[in-house]
Amino acid sequence: MNAPFRADGHGHVDRDITLSFTFDGTAYTGHRGDTLASALLASGVHHVADSIKYRRPRGILTAGVEEPNALVQIEAPFPEPMLTSTTVELYEGLVARGLSGQGRLSSEPDSARYDTVHAHCDVLVVGAGPAGLAATLTAARSGARVILVDELPLPGGSLLGSQERLDGAPSAAWVSDVVAELDTLPDVRVLRRTTAFGHYDDGLVLALEKRTDHLGAAAPEHVSRQRIWRIRAQQVVFATGAYERPVAFDDNDRPGIMLAGSARTYLNRFGVLPGRRAVVFTTNDSAYPAALELADAGVRIAAVVDAREEVPAHWRAACDERGIDVRAGHVVTGTSGIERVSRAHVAAFGQGRPGERQGIDCDLLLVSGGWNPAVALFSQARGALRYDAAIGAFVPAQALACVRTAGAAGGNFTLAGCLADGADAAARALSALGRTGGPVALPATDPLPDAAPGRVLWRVPSPRDGADGSHQFVDLQRDALVSDVLRATGAGLRSVEHVKRYTTIGTAHDQGRTSGVMTSGIIAEALGVDVADMGTMRLRPPAVPVPFAAFAGRNRGELFDPVRVTSLHPWHVEHGALFEDVGQWKRPWYYPRAGETMDEAVLRECRAARTGVALMDGSTLGKINVQGPDAGVLLDRLYTNMMSTLKVGRVRYGVMCGVDGMAIDDGTVIRVAEQEYLLTTTTGNAARILEWMEEWLQTEWPDLRVHLTSVTEHWATIPLVGPRSRDVLALVAPELDVDNEAFPFMSWRDTPVAGIPARVCRISFSGELAYEVNVPAWDAITVWKALIAAGDSFGITPYGTETMHVLRAEKAYPIIGQDTDGTVTPQDLGMSWVVSKKKPDFVGKRSFAREENQRGDRKQLVGLLPADERTLLPEGAQIIATSDIPAPPVPMLGHVTSSYRSDALQRTFALALVRSGTQRIGETLYVPLDGQTVAVTVTEPVLFDKEGARRDG
Amino acid sequence: MRPIDNAPDAHEDVLPDHPDFLWRNPDPKPSYDVVIVGGGGHGLATAYYLAKNHGITNIAVLEKGWLAGGNMARNTTIIRSNYLWDESSGIYEHSLKLWETLEEDLDYPILFSQRGVLNLAHSLQDVRDSKRRVYANQLNGIDAEWLEPEEVAKVCPIVNTSQDVRYPVHGATYQPRAGIAKHDYVAWGFARRADEYGIDLIQDCEVTGLDIRGGRIHGVRTTRGDIAAGKVALAAAGHTSVLASMAGLRLPLQSHPLQALVSELLEPVHPTVVMSNAVHVYVSQAHKGELVMGAGIDSYNGYGQRGAFHILERQMAAALELFPVFARAHMLRTWAGIVDVTPDASPIVGATPVEGLYLNCGWGTGGFKATPGVGWCYAHTIATGEPHPYNAPFTLSRFTSGALVDEHGAAGVAH
Amino acid sequence: MQLIACPWCGQREETEFHYGGQAHIAYPEDPYALDDEQWAQYVFFRDNPKGPFAERWVHSAGCRRWFNALRDTVTHEFLAVYTGATPPSTTSTAPAAPQRKGQEASR
């Protein structure tokens, strides 16, 4: 297809490169540098999609991110919903369709990469238009570190869309000079195709860089598709420009109706004529250059309809020169057309009421209701806005200490003003940083007469009887009408935010860029209040829609959260272990042999530990080294039991409670030396407990001379368990006297194991004779393999966390976090023995005296034996008193915390927290399952080796 | 060109219209029987049930901004009752039952959609905690089920139930009666009914002081003048501490930012509500087609109604772990509410040491779903001076006795 | 994301820190002299002001040290960062000058 609306001699697109694309099933071509919208317009396509509610044809209203209408669904090369065709850079092979409402997500995985980069600078300038370039140049020449971000592929911003000249030459010359100079400065970074979308605390500006979107299927796979820049800026200059505002009139939504400035952009940036015969409807001067430039490029301007009574003489003269009919004091009251506007209805606009209407044929209706500064980012920075009645827009009230606007973003709409304002904003930013920048010579602009004031006009009263505003669109994307706004105020709504929710205005992708201020104006008119008091809709981050995947960046899959593995991990993988996630750790869960079920594997592992010898990787236990003269004092205050009396060479089990008296962690403590302890925490709590200890030490007892260090990663820990563990240890630790008297329970020895210096503790989490071999993580595999080799003849068996859980449950050793839930005290766990009676105080003790803690019917840890010894109670099952299940709510006595099949007991068993549990030993209670109940006998929690005979082998 | 007055039947992605009249905008009267401070969902529901259930209509609801513009406008509208403890499931289930008839009761299209809620489990301990909650729910008469991963995939096919991901889905609890509603519609439904009862809804009216004499409340001072009141009921969520301090009360509350976001409108992909506490994301697809998502709370105290960017980054990463299909959905808007969090993640509803001053706060991230239930119970408490059985456990004194209702320890899913 | 001036390390991203709630809540001299209500005040009740708030942070992914900050809970502005027992009477927005390592956090 050729492009009948391409204007020769205009635009920055590369006409040597032709790109083929498909829209709504039809093939078209465009050029490198086009957007999808400009390519469509060049081909004469205005109707992009039908509207969401009324299914009316809709076209292209704007040339940028403010587009409310022309949404597309990308279908190829990869589906992406809801992009504005005005911001999609054209690429070869693009397939898109117009979107009415809901977009479509691909069910195929997105294989594109996304990433995130940090950047820091003295001055960040957002926007590479005249103000932004002047600001950047000023800041950059001072030697400051400067970042300039701009959403377009080319620098220049609004200059790309106008024919205004600088220093008597096309502005592109100045722009390229500036950019060339910036490129030579080492501390200046210019980011193109990069849209700042968020301003967060302390100068954090987020920007999205589209790195390969414009390459389509040719995008290299190794380059991230999009990148989020996290820019920390000391000073920020938002030179974000302004968005043109439409005026509401009847049937103001037809394709072919476009904002005047956007039409100018299509001509000057893209070399596209958006129509052949245009009517221009304006309330201000800014539409005149559009009309004149389009006229000069061959568009017949049928009329300029100016709502003002007076048209500035120079604009009238310029129009006269070209034979353009200028109708002052007139408005467009409505339009006709089928798929596209074919006629504008024009009427004199006297005392706020339109007079007799007259039709003017056209295929393009350009509208300008004035300009709204782009203040979304400034607002996000908590910059206050004020209503400027002269321009009918909200502008920054004043600069913040670190954030300012420049140019049109601050309500400065002339080119000379924007340039000067940009330079000034940068100078102020530099001054705030204590820097001085020399004055920068700004280019001369074309001499222009002073701008005449515009007329603030939100809508043209509808000439239709009894249908006031019911054909006047405010939010084109949401199909919301002036009548909807009036219905909202009639319903009693007085707040812009209420009207927004009532009408859904401003809730689409564009956040009401072209409709928000108009809405405030219409509400204010309806209620007879000042727009300034009305305020405007809150603009929320992100300022432009950002793909979820860009936010996620590289934090996907394996990188979503760090995977922590022990130094023995490869061995576990090699030997077929299945893994359990515990916090960030991968822990071996069990080691199934070929054809084994989990139950079979776990029973086998348990049997090995109880009858022979078994070993596991316990390296994930948190380990905290505590050193200093007051180490014992600190531990006495944090553990429920006494640690200062622990002798060097001995080990003690301990429990920590929160201030509320609830158990938060447990583990062993060994006294390494007079002033040194090493304690272990549960795997998932290691970091939390270190922080907890530091908090008390630093903020409550800074007088204590203690230092804490995590040594979790330094030590590999290998529990060696079972009646034959002593035999195995003796083989690999020849220097160690393993005799029970020489190396008694709850003591530790430093000794070489398999030739590696090791610390061996005689502790047991299974009730069996057991050792815990601690070696530097680097040497763990050597020691592990040596233990396996030495234990080979005893049938040594590696076991995982599941077997560990079974073994400990048979002995009623609780798992904090499984058998407790933050509401359980050590006493509830039957561990009053671990709560010191001697110590005057420790963290949590005072709470034991509270009313609730004194109740006789607290929930306590007990054992449960199902009547049928094959019945495995589900963990989490609730316990009731009766064999019949009464109608809900059923009184519940507690729940099953742990439940296993036991090889040692040759039956199933469970641990449970049961109300008044210790008084119910011997009672029969019931566990409802699938509408039935299972009878269970309440027992002492310890079910195996109650006398502890196995501990010493 | 299709004429507007001959529009096709409302599309599924177009919401029902609001009524032509919502409420008057009265000036405050000098005196009311009850002044409710806070015109959010809870305050409006309380006013409504005071009138409907107790015949008290000489009420003002004072709102410092615009009605339902606080957390009511900022939450992710999840409604469920599958809480662990009897106390919690009691009041939330009461609320859910009210939700089930609320549309007729209010004669307002609140778009209550019982599409079910999945709470995912990502670790063996999650599985234990989840099943514990399911068993407890069932005995409390709440529809709760445990689903294995393949059943999760049936309920919500877009959840990634592959076991080959960083934190695989081990299963989920499922409450079929749970769902979502449209928050503005709910709030406005209550507001319109309250207005019909003659209750004064007074906006732009910030309470600046409490008139307390002799241990009793006599009224409030506001930016629109002093207002006398027989009883004053606080329903101000994140701002409760500020108000309570005017009465000299210090509460076990901390106010935090909580962020949420929406995507563009999308063709239906997500039939239910999915919550994952372990990876901190919860998401549904609202009526028009937008994905509505919430994150974990920002850690620090904050009244600024904005949170930090890294929370959103984390949330998106988590969302894509669970829903790879969302990769090219776009984040359209984010916002933050101010949630008032108690030490046990359960609310405080009841009397205060000041006679005639009542407290409803501490709903943290879960207040929306409680809206009708707490309105009902709080109204009962205010009208009778005695707590309703459903809010009786949620006293301030539980922090002294230690009888907490600890909903984060075991269930961990407070949203 | 706030930029927080750790007294020892200087300005770092918020993600490196953990929040510690209200500052200057001393562990009671004698918990057993308190009645349950007074004890509950210590355990569960904290100020929650809208505006300047003396609070604690720990540079958990950095030097692991606790410090205090006076921060505005509305603007998130750090009014002061300090290690002493009371907030400095400054309302300056400048972060406290980094102190030498080795100086004790005094609370």
TrEMBL record, chain A:
Keywords: Cytoplasm, NAD, Nucleotide-binding, Oxidoreductase. Residues 122-382 form the FAD/NAD(P)-binding domain. One of its GO terms (molecular function) is nucleotide binding. Belongs to the GcvT family. It is found in: Cytoplasm. Pfam families: Fer2_4, GCV_T, GCV_T_C, Pyr_redox_2, SO_alpha_A3. Its cofactor is NAD(+). Binds 1 NAD(+) per subunit. Residues 568-839 form the GCVT N-terminal domain. This is Sarcosine oxidase subunit alpha. It is an enzyme of class 1 (oxidoreductase). Its EC number is 1.5.3.24. GO terms for biological process: tetrahydrofolate metabolic process. GO terms for cellular component: cytoplasm. It catalyses: sarcosine + (6S)-5,6,7,8-tetrahydrofolate + O2 = (6R)-5,10-methylene-5,6,7,8-tetrahydrofolate + glycine + H2O2. It comes from the Bacteria. It comes from Streptomyces antnestii. Its main location: cytoplasm. Residues 859-945 form the Aminomethyltransferase C-terminal domain. Residues 471-553 form the SoxA A3 domain.
UniProtKB/TrEMBL annotation, chain B:
PANTHER family: FAD-DEPENDENT OXIDOREDUCTASE DOMAIN-CONTAINING PROTEIN 1, SARCOSINE DEHYDROGENASE-RELATED. One of its GO terms (molecular function) is nucleotide binding. It comes from Streptomyces antnestii. GO terms for biological process: tetrahydrofolate metabolic process. Residues 34-78 form the Rhodanese domain. NCBIfam families: soxB. This is Sarcosine oxidase subunit beta. Keywords: Cytoplasm, FAD, Flavoprotein, FMN, Nucleotide-binding, Oxidoreductase.
Automatic annotation (TrEMBL), chain C:
Residues 85-98 have a biased composition (Low complexity). GO terms for molecular function: sarcosine oxidase activity. GO terms for biological process: tetrahydrofolate metabolic process. Residues 84-107 are annotated as: Disordered. It comes from the Bacteria. NCBIfam families: soxD. This is Sarcosine oxidase subunit delta family protein. It comes from Streptomyces antnestii.
